[in-house]
Amino acid sequence: MSGPECLPLKTWEAVEEWTEGEDDLCISTIPLAEREPRSQNTPQTLLCHDMRGGYQQDRFVQGCGDVDSYRFYHWQYIDMFIYFSHYFVSIPPPTWTNAAHRNGVKMLGTEWDDGLKRCQQLLQSEDTYKTFADKLVRITKYYNMFFDACDGIFLNYNWKDETLINSKCDATKKGRAMDVFVGIDVFGRGCLGGGGFNTIEDPVNDWNTRK
């Protein structure tokens, strides 16, 4: 396999050294399509793509010949798509971003890897965290994943009845009950009912009915 590849920023130094114009082929080219407006009280669905650390066959910007590589067809059922990886700063491959934007789905990346050490570097001074924040803004603008402000929270998979209801109550007090996304791990690691399709339904019903 050859051709240009989209790769994450793996270290603090890589983020500091990043600059526009070095990987033009990794930029998404499809603008975010508009969708029909929905009620503010309608729940949204978020899909978190967590595939063996990310950047598998999908890292090849011009595609690959593996017919068994992971793909996703049902864009009409989701509102947001997270490209999750086990690296410091994830830059989603443009093939994913283009597909999401074509279907009116927001594309998000993640930050990962040795959080305590990274936070110590990030917060060592006002200059360091401002520089880092400014650089992340430049990166998101450059690759077209940009959004103005944080508008939701994605809960960990290991929620229980009590913590889920607490989150519901806190979000409702702020008028943002639909801005909390509840994770279900398809591998069933620590989830109620074993995760996936076996996750029990009572907490989800509680989310919709309790005040």
Automatic annotation (TrEMBL):
Name of the protein described by the UniProt record: Cytosolic endo-beta-N-acetylglucosaminidase TIM barrel domain-containing protein
Domain Cytosolic endo-beta-N-acetylglucosaminidase TIM barrel: 55-144, 145-200
PANTHER family with a match to the protein in the record: CYTOSOLIC ENDO-BETA-N-ACETYLGLUCOSAMINIDASE, ENDO BETA N-ACETYLGLUCOSAMINIDASE
Organism: Tegillarca granosa
InterPro entries reported for this sequence: ENGase (IPR032979), TIM_ENGase (IPR005201)
Source species, domain of life: Eukaryota
